[in-house]
Amino acid sequence: QHSLRHRLRLCSESLRLLLQFSQERQKKLRHTMADPEAIKKVCDIYDWDGKGELDLYYLGDVMYALGFNTTKKVCVANGQVDEEGKKFAKFDDVVAKVQTCLSTPESQGNYHDFIELLKLYDKNSNGTMMLAELENLLANLGDEIPKEDVQKLLAELCDPEDEDGFFPYTPFVDRLTGKA
Q1: Which of 8, 61, 94, 101 has its CA 20 to 30 A from that of 161?
Q2: Across the strands, what pairs with 55?
Q3: Is 125 left (phi over 0), alpha (psi -120 to 50) or beta?
């Protein structure tokens, strides 16, 4: 169950990346420094015991709560662990970790990451996926997006689905990231 929860969280974070950031915005965010007080406020939410420490299992969640979609690889390189209760850091240390994550080149994901994510749903290994599956993922994972908004997004960015309900996902990502 932990593995499924972890995979769902990774999918959720990746899909949020697809919806929220174009490649241009990602470049700007890479050079952004987060407000230390905002970081500490988010840490306080995750401080279940009131000890002034963050369980580093939640480092990626803190980044996400701050509006940054830093890759898991970057979070792990800065102390994130795969089990709760294994490693903790004082809030001031978390501020430094967040700033380090944000200053890491390629920390926000990129076009290739988006394509690799959608390949996970490419059942026929032919560059297509089910439109209904993408719609369901976008509407129900991570920050839930109202179904009407998802349908508008897909109508604007996706090629029409074929008779089996599949559509090519590369043009979708191209339009989403401004490559098309």
Answers
A1: 8
A2: 88
A3: left
Q: Model confidence over 9-49: pLDDT tens digits?
A: 555 555 655 555 444 444 554 445 678 999 999 999 999 89
Tokens for 144, please give them.
């839930």
Asked if 70 and 39 count as a contact pair (C-beta separation under 8 A), the reply is no
The string of DSSP codes covering the chain is -HHHHHHHHHHHHHHHHHHH--HHHHHHHHT----HHHHHHHHHHH-TTSSSEEEGGGHHHHHHHTT----HHHHHHTT--SSTTS-EEEHHHHHHHHHHHHHSTT-S--HHHHHHHHHTT-TTSSSEEEHHHHHHHHHHSSS---HHHHHHHHHHHSPPP-TTSEEEHHHHHHHHHT--
pTM, to two decimals: 0.52
- Tell me: the pLDDT tens digits for 122-153? 999 999 999 998 888 777 765 566 778 888 88
In one letter, which amino acid is 90?
A: K
Burial of 105 (0-12, 13-18, 19+ CB in 10 A): exposed
On whether the CB atoms of residues 173 and 15 are closer than 8 A, the answer is: no
